[in-house]
Amino acid sequence: xxxxxxxxxxxxxxxxxxxxxxxxxxxxxxxxxxxxxxxxxxxxxxxxxxxxxxxxxxxxxxxxxxxxxxxxxxxxxxxxxxxxxxxxxxxxxxxxxxxxxxxxxxxxxxxxxxxxxxxxxxxxxxxxxxxxxxxxxxxxxxxxxxxxxxxxxxxxxxxxxxxxxxxxxxxxxxxxxxxxxxxxxxxxxxxxxxxxxxxxxxxxxxxxxxxxxxxxxxxxxxxxxxxxxxxxxxxxxxxxxxxxxxxxxxxxx
Length: 253
Fold this sequence. Notes:
Blueprint: E1 6-15, E2 22-32, E3 37-42, H1 48-55, E4 63-68, E5 71-72, H2 78-88, E6 89-92, H3 104-115, H4 120-133, H5 149-161, E7 167-171, H6 179-194, E8 198-202, H7 206-209, E9 214-219, E10 222-228, H8 237-250
Parallel strand pairs: 3-8, 3-9, 6-7, 7-8
Antiparallel strand pairs: 1-2, 1-4, 4-5, 9-10
Helix pairs in contact: 3-4, 3-5, 5-6
């Protein structure tokens, strides 16, 4: 039997640093299919980013199980979990978190070399091919302050794909970009999805969410509804966004 890429079972998350403790996730069940583009939406404070951090192992769940390709991540120690994140997952955040003292190319290359130090030539070839594909090869020698926000996010996508991950997580990847840069980054992520990469993205932007195969909606740490959208095409994007907005408004978005 083929496992889903990601299987989330009755996941809860409580932060005990507050008084009283704050339960942010209240029993989430979720399956992410291989090659699926899934978007997580909800109002501020609904638990969107917490869910993404928990299912990617960046934060520990309080209860429940998270399985990546059938492997229970909740049973792993910190070192094992770090290795899984490095080799099986890619991440794109609102801010790129690049190292100031490295060039764009070296920032992209670093995790690939760390994952497989004995396969340097293969890593270099893959990174160069990714940079060329996403239109940033010409800024590879630049520092991170010498490029645009859109170029930085495309570099983040290249870095996320450098280790050929099983799944890519994106947390508000267009949140700090203008409309032109947002379209640029979403086109890049759509290309990644069309290649067959499984993608889970948190966003507040319905136009970005309309690119997904499926959208789920959180409220107060509960998954209250989901909507299948099917394959995205540019010709249908406006109608697709309108339909999604109608659904979201019924949910109180």
